[in-house]
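Hi,

Apologies if this is the wrong queue. I'm a grad student, and the batch job for Protein CHAPERONE-LIKE PROTEIN OF POR1, chloroplastic from Citrus clementina produced an output file that my downstream script rejects. I'm not sure whether the problem is my script or the file. Here is the sequence I used:
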Amino acid sequence: MSSLLLSNPNLSTSFLPCKIPGYENTRKTAFCPLSRSSKVARCAVDTPSGGNMPTFSRIKVWDPYKRLGISPYASEEEIWGSRNFLLEQYTGHERSEESIEAAFEKLLMTSFRRRKKEKINLKSRLKKQVEESPPWFKNLLNFVELPPKDVIFRRLFLFAFMGGWSIMNSAEGGPAFQVAVSLAACIYFLNEKTKSLARASIIGLGALASGWILGSVVVPMIPTVLIHPTWTLELLTSLVAYFFLFLACTFFK
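Support response: The file is valid. Your script probably expects a header line. Output copied below for reference.
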């Protein structure tokens, strides 16, 4: 028996899956490595279970600001940052994550109500200022309206296209044709709103004249270094006129 043990130093049994180290040809098993220095087996069954995860210390704090550890005057960016930081710290602990998310959602709803209230208060203040304004200012506002955004963008695109068309043809001739088309479009849009061709024509021609006069005064003040060599005074004045036509047919009524 002793000769058998000496001839086979790698001893293993069904109760000890790890082979005893210390010999030259000893091999370690994959699931139960041995440390040569301590001679202590460290197996997978010895790792701690998931029950030892850290628990959020402020899980029962009622105030959502204190629960997230931020000031009552914190911005939305700070609220998001605190929420993400805490979720990283307590990932895997369900009760902690639920407590953090509940406080975060409560603060978001509070921020939304505050913004909505401020928006309503702003409208109320503007309405009050309009009501207290002089009569001439009220009469002026009666000629102005705010159309839907899609209408604004469509008409802005139209007059921007006219401006680009005029710039592309600046070397060939003046923008007389483009100005005429823009004026006709402005009168058409105004006639749709006012149902009066005479009123639409007066507003359109007034916008064109105002833009042309203002452009003739302002454009010469621009340094020539900032102006393209092929851009004439007539072209730049027409661009100002396009802008006035856009304002007239979009916001006037």
